[in-house]
Each structure stands twice: as structure tokens, then as C-alpha cells.
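Dear colleague,

Thank you for sharing your sequence with our group. We've completed the structure prediction you requested, and as agreed, I am returning the results in plain text so they can be pasted directly into your records. Please verify that the sequence below matches your submission; if there's any discrepancy, let me know and we will rerun it promptly.
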Amino acid sequence: MRPLLILLVLLPTVSLAQVPSPAPLFADFVAVDHGRLYVEEFGEGYPLVFIHDGLAHREVWDAQVAAFALHYRVIRYDRRGYGRSDAPDSVYSNVDDLDAVVTARGIDRAVLVGSSAGGGLVIDYALAHPERVEALVLSGPVVSGSGYTLHNMKRAYTNFSTDPAAQVERWSADPYAIAPGNDVARARLKDLLTAYPQNLDLGKGALHRDPERPALGRLGEIHVPTLLLTGEHDIPDVHAHMGAIEAGIPGARRVVLEDAGHLCYLEQPEAFNAAVREFLSLISLAPGSPLAQAAPPGPWNTYTRGFAPVDGTALYYEAMGVGDPVILLHGGAVDHRMWDEQFVALAKRFRVVRYDARGAGLSLSPFGTYCHYEDLAALMTRGGFERAHLVGLSMGCRLAVDLAIAHPERVSSLVLCSPGISGFEFNTPEDRAYIERIRAAFMQADFTKAAEEFVHAWCDGPKRTPEETPADVRARVKAMAVEIIRPDRDMGQGVELDPPAVARLGEVRAPTLAILGTLDMPSIHTIVQMIGDTVPGARVERIEGAAHMVNMEEPERVNRLLLDFIR
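Please find the predicted C-alpha cells below.
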């Protein structure tokens, strides 16, 4: 899959903060008590509802909408008196307003994401309507019933002005709202406040009806997964509130983002989104999820996850089971999730690790000089693994073979599914046509089409139509591809083995199994033939009727081969 990686490297990258929100699938007013709220909805999937802070309005979430609408149903709205929503003209309740929005949009349960006062609102909502809340993401939240220090009250009064323009200038310059030095985010905040000066009208708060029973003394009643996020330069009061919430809500987890203030999702959108994606992934492993159902109870089912610092970045990883280490290496434009079935099956006998390479899944995009196979070596070292069995697919095989040549003492065995190898040029007519279709889609900035072309080439293969490909496999691959093939993501190629593996396969000494789907691209057939002819003692297994994503199409067959081969 090397041509795709090269193409991605050549394309310019942009900051996530610069990526506009997609067009909403729904944009209209929802009726509430004595007024209307403006609501927007994007994407499909499990619902995420974003509630803004007390300064800005719904558009403060643009970077989050762009990221999460790829896989979720994202709803955002302007609270009463903000943005395009009606100003209050009578007593109202933010909790009732939120309930009216989710009811009007036909939502039974949702993950609620709230910032500042919006965070306090979702806490109050979770206490009032626990049956409608799946999980909470709280960014710099306040808590109803808690007081404010003199310092924060003085700050608010200092920034307040009867002159709307002066008030916009003061709040956008506030060093707690946006950390010093984050000029792009500060300019964005100023634009948001300028667009709707009524956001800063403090008068609407006088008509708000607070909950009869404030949240401060009731946090222990919340029993849903809760993620707390804030910037290291946030308001001291907010840090105190965060401590109270973390102590009060069972299992709540706090993440502090560096170089960010109160509006950390506006300042550090990539880091914020990565933390939320990890949290949502964690929820997917809760009892009742497909992966949890596939994992039978037993001492082997010891699951951990996190971010491993590696050469100037952090790689997301998951580990499960006990025994000799097995590391699963994903292909290009997909991520760790492609190994769901193998992760569970192998964990019954081994300590299995899967991770996202730079720019894939939950790991950050690469910057500076780096090397994918040295990342793998560093990850093994941090995990305490001197040696490991390596199982790769496509690009993951390239990493595995490079490591087996560069550091043979660290590789116990190799399983190479639909393998790529460094230095091999993909030059068949099918390959060239694929590259040109991808290139054309990128040049037109049609990243959805680029992802679809990737799925067609590497999931359907050259010998069948999309309708002939297993629908569940195709949907899973596309869901991963559309998240990676974006202007703000870049897996990159990194520094390759020199000389590359294509001329050095005879140096591989680890026991090697190559697995090939008979419907795969011609170049992959060529690589497998080279491995079988050149790697000493290599074994080749062909699986009829499968294409490139052979482990996803034939998981039971592949699992049997893995468990039989890895000793």
C-alpha cells in the first residue's frame, strides 16, 4: 500500500482548527417553553450532544463536529439567549431546554459533551434524567451549588462592559479563556463573540431557574462513565470544581491538556478530540458491547489501554491476556480496530498488544523525522518485551519485516497477512489505476471519495464489485478509512529500512507464515511469492474467496492459522 502512503505525505496538512464543519443534515428551530432554540445535526450513528459555554455559541464546536460527525450523530444547539436562539423573556430552565431538544430530535440516550456552564448543565441533566444519559464529557465544568472565589468574581466584573465591542475585546483577551500565546484560538474566539454580541448579555441569567437540588452534594448519584477535560491554564475555580467532580462521580477520570486554558477544545482540538475518542472507545468495551461479549470471563481477560510516549509522540495501545507477547500491526488507512476478532481470540493464550501507528486511529499525526519500525521497537521496550511475535497486514507487514531485518533478536515469529514490504514498487495496471483515482479525489478535495476508492481497491479487490464484498467488512473498513484519509491526518511513510527489505528477504531468520486472499491485488500475490521463495522455511497459506482484508473476511480461518503457527 506504499503508493497511498506516499500520496498522503505529498499532500499539505492543515490544523484541525481550520477544518470547517460539514453541512448539517438538520438545521432548524426547536420549540421550547416560551421560545425557540436553534439546533443543528450532523452525521449518523450513536448521538453525541454538544453544549457550549457561557461566552460563545454552537460554532465553538466546529473542530469537534468535523471530527466526530464521521462516525457519530452529532447534535449542537444555541442555548437560550445565544447565537440564533431566542433571548429569554420569562423564567426558563436550561435542563428543560436540553430535554426539549433531545426529545424533539427523537433521542432516547446520548453522550453529553458540555463546556463550562454547559458542563454544569449536563451534570444537572444527568441528575434529573439519568435514563437518557450514556456518558458525560465535561470540559472545564462548573457545578451548581458551588461558590466562586473573589478572584473569579473580580475577573468577571473586570471583563464586563456596557459597550459590546469593549466586552468582546476584554473576553477574547482573557488569559484564562485562551492561554497566552494561542493567538489563532484567541482570534477565533473574538470572531465568535463578534458574530453574536448578545452572547455576553448577563441579563439572561437573571431569568434562569436553577435546579431545586444543586449538583454539588449529589455527584455520587451519577453512575455513568465521565471524562473531565481542562487546560492547565484554566481558571483556578474551575480546577477546584474539577477536583470536586472527580472525587464525587464514581470512576470519573481527569485529563489536563497542556498549553490550553478554559476553552481547551478550541485551543488544542486534536488533543481534545483524541482524548474524547479514547474515552468513547473505552465505553465501547463496557458490558454489552460486541467486543466485551466476545471476551469470555477468565484470568486471561486482563485489559489495559493508554498512550505510550515514543520518540516525541504518544501511540495509543490496547493490551489483553497473559503469556508470550503478540503484537498486531494494522494496515494503511485503517487502525487497531481491524484486529477485533484476532485480539480477542489470541488473548486466550498470549499477551496481545495492538496499537495505532502515527496518524492512525487515536495516535497523533507524525511530525519531524521518525521511523515506523523503530516506533515498534520502542513500544516493545516500554512494554517490557525483549522479543515478540509480530502479526501484520499490508503496511503492518512492512514494519514487521523491517524490524526482523534491523533487529532480528527482537522477533520471535512473523505472520504476514496480505503483505507489503519496503522497497517494492506497485506498478501493475490495477495499482496504477487505483493510485490515479485516489490522486484525482485528493486534488478535488473529495476525501470521502478518496476513502471510497481506498475501500474499493483494498477491500473489494480487482475481482469483485462492492456488492459482492461482505457488507459488514466493507462498512468497518470504510469507517476507519474516512477518519484517516482527511486533510488534517497523515500517517506518513517515515524513514525506511536502508537498503529496503525487498532485496533482503533472505536475511529474515524468524519463522514466517504468509497468508494471502486469492482475490487480492496482483502485486500482493507477487510479494507472497517472493516471501515463499526467499525467506528460509517460509510457509504460505492461501484463503479462497478473500481479498486484502483477509483477517476480517475470514476471521475463524485466520485465527486457527495464527493459533496453530505461533508457539
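Summary note from our side: The radius of gyration is 26 Å.

Kind regards,
the structure core
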